[in-house]
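Quick start: what a row looks like.
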Amino acid sequence: MKRNILFFSVLLALVGFVACEDDETIVGDPTLTVESNLTAAHFGDSISFTATVADDEVPLSTLKAQLFFGDEMVEETVIRTKTNGQYTGKIYVPFHKDIPNGTGRLKFVVQNIEFAIEEQTYDVALSRPEYPSVTLVTAEGDYSMEKVDDYLYAVTAMFPQKVKGYIKAPAINNAGNDMTFGWSSGEITEGTDTDITFSSYAAGEYEIFFNILTYQAGPFISLEFAGHEMVMVDENNYKVEAELEQDQVIELDGIPNLEDWWIDPDYFADNGDGTLTFKAISGKYRVTANFSNEYFVVESMSGNDLATLQSDGSGALWIIGEGIGKPSLANQVGWNTDKALCLAQISPKVYQVTVVGGESIDSNSINFKFFHQKGWGGEYTNANLSTTSDIVLVGDGENGRDPGNLGFADGITLTQGATYVFEVDITAGLENAVLSVTQK
């Protein structure tokens, strides 16, 4: 009997709780009247709106204008509404590439402090503006780019081999905004005036173009290395990551003055006919065409990352420090790890760098060392690196160099213009590396 009484007591309590929940109501009665013409807009516009809001029972909190592309809210404007009345504002229509013309939804929501809301939604026809012309802005002057096709603009003029500039498109009505298109994170994007580097194979008359829908633009030098297209890293560097075979003949396309480039003798043999022969062991490499110094930077890779020295002596070996640089001392490595040199692995676990006295190596003083990676971390010291050379010493902390740092032996300077080959042999194991230095 007591059990039944307890059961009915709990049941009545639950019923009462549910009833209380059902009796809860949202307090207030907000009203909303939108008075603006909101039927159409362009991407890049700032849509103006006016709304009258009120709640005679509970103070208001916010008025929100929200723009949706499909089910995604892409922009929102929030206005604090301390009192009943009329409020005005603007909401921006994002401008991005590859977004087709279509219908967006503009939602207005008024809310009071008790979270009661009233909302209205409008369909808005959205389209990409078709400008009469856009402007290529350069340090040397502005060029009008005329419309030549849907969304496509172009200008033909006498240009240098490289042109740095950004694209500016004007507001086409009172609701519009000036738009800029520049370079960011390896591509053209809106909202920046960082220069795009257009480039041709030679100075002269050529066309520069830009598509405001796809952001396709040009010209850009089309470079190919061993049948692979090189991608632009920045205005002076193009790279490719590819498997290369030792003794592979590499065809190059897109460098008109290749005969003026410095060809790294550790990695390539210049065949004199516009091709190179690859000299390092077979593997995956990142090759960067550096136009500011006119040479190819070659770095060994493991998968999608730069290679590191492995416990068996394979992988990669790097130089960081003073008195050495490629293609010359004008591009000295120093202690900037971003500029670390990757030695060529000419045979398994044997690494080499070739330098010229007074040109790519300081003839009077050096202070660099060998690292296991392109950056700080594992490094060689005198505990695991010895040398057979009477030209170079390995620092031990007491001979004028820190442990592992290389220096010249007492009384030694290098012959100006002479070629020297530094070779590190790790075939006897990671802890038994041997450095030799040979004058050719």
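That is the whole record. Residues 312 and 429 are 6 Å apart (CA to CA). The radius of gyration is 34 Å.
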